Amino acid sequence: MWLLLITLHAAAGxxxxxxxxxxxxxxxxxxxxxxxxxxxxxxxxLLIFMVSATxxxxxxxxxxxxxxxxxxxxxAIYMLYRGQHAYRLLRHQSVNTSVYMSxxxxxxxxxxxxxxxxxxxxxxxxxxxxxxxAIIAALIGSQLVERAKTRFLGALQCLRANPGKGxxxx
Length: 170
Prior knowledge:
The chain has helices at 2-22, 26-31, 33-56, 63-91, 97-122, 127-161. It is an all-alpha fold. It has one domain. The radius of gyration is 18 Å and the shape is globular. The model has no long low-confidence stretch (mean pLDDT 87).
């Protein structure tokens, strides 16, 4: 049972990550709202399957994991909150693009960080490597989200300055 729940948790994480990348652009998210719904559903699944997997073998996990896993559940709830906030922003006619992209970006960085941490733990890396990997993943993720925001907002300003021209190819 635990393996099935972990597999479903991982699939939900990959699904929310892939769809989150796709909907990072608010224009694309508005055009393809189904991806936003899938993203939110995958975040819900991520949380449900993680909590279920943890509960299914609570007696076998270490004391440290009994502290870490509830903390991860709180992070997943906050990620879901940020995803819901992005959805609410997108429903408004004039989206606060920077805040929307920050909300989606936060979840992407958190998911990417989770992938890096799980990989390092599965490879039996020392704790300092796991921590360093998490920090590096967060820094890289933050830079990539900021770059995407800058690029999108720059293209948006160009469009406003030159109506009718459309978005330039990157």
